[in-house]
Amino acid sequence: MNKSAIAITGFGLVLPKSSSNHDAQNQTVPELIPRKLRRFSTRSIPTAVAACHQAVESCGLDEKTLCEKVALYTAQSGYQHPDFDDFADALKGWDRHVEPSLLATLWQSRQVNPFLITKALSNNLIGIISQIWRLKNDGVAFIRDQAGSAAALDEAYFQLSSGYAEVAMVVMSGCDEDCYTAVAEQRPLPINTEHTGAAVLILESEAHAKRRGANVQAWINSFSSNSQENTPWLDGAMFREREGLEWGGIVMAITQSLQHVHSEQYQGHWSVEADYGNKRTARAILRRDTE
Q1: pTM, 2 dp
Q2: Tens of pLDDT along 29-66?
Q3: pLDDT digits over 146-187, tens only?
Q4: Residues near 79 by Cβ (< 8 Å), separated by ≥ 6?
Q5: Given this model, what pLDDT does residue 193 score?
């Protein structure tokens, strides 16, 4: 086994429920967020928390280990902060032909959510997840869509490979609907979580995974967040982001590939990659075996 290999011991995936995505899960997101935290939640938070629950349940970590050892790295995609639902009452009667009136309407209205500023923070997601699972370890919040996804996984991979952390949770959440465009085109805004999705990976160092006898879903043998080289030829397939889910980046691509190789009972190496602009590609070489 590669000494720098990182174990994937759990993962969660909740896909957007838009009509163009035939793989979306036909289920409602349960109310998994404590009531006192819901006031700070944006549109994508419930979906992300649901994916986190999937990942936590699949990895088999106890509450004490989660609390004391899990480092949290999150990334967010699409317009989510603040949620357009917060402006719903204020936007009623807004004259779309008089653009300057929008700002005045929003910021002078008493109907605007009082927690609007908190919702606008880029660390909104990491804050709520860390509160739910009472995480006390390292944590970093990233943005910028696919680049944020690559950065979050890169940081987790570095911390685990260097021995600074033993367990990490990487969360990518996003919205596949552009709310700005919907407003400009006078179309209905996304309802609840129908256009949001999330992908979550639970990663562990090789030593920690073996010490607790974890059920390893796959190994990440190598990872590069700025790869412009040709994909190496391996005995397995190369998995890319599926069309329409590019916002999820490399974290989404890995969770989708894990679902595929598990359903096919695949054993061996495979390459996973996701483009994130400027001709750059985040790429991971994974392995699934019985060792």
Answers
A1: 0.82
A2: 547 788 888 877 877 788 899 999 999 999 999 999 99
A3: 888 999 999 999 999 999 999 999 999 987 666 666 666 666
A4: 175, 178, 179, 180
A5: 57
Structure tokens at 212: 């607790």
C-alpha distances (whole Å) from 73 to each of 151, 162, 176, 201, 232 are 9, 16, 21, 10, 28
The overall average pLDDT reported for the chain is: 79
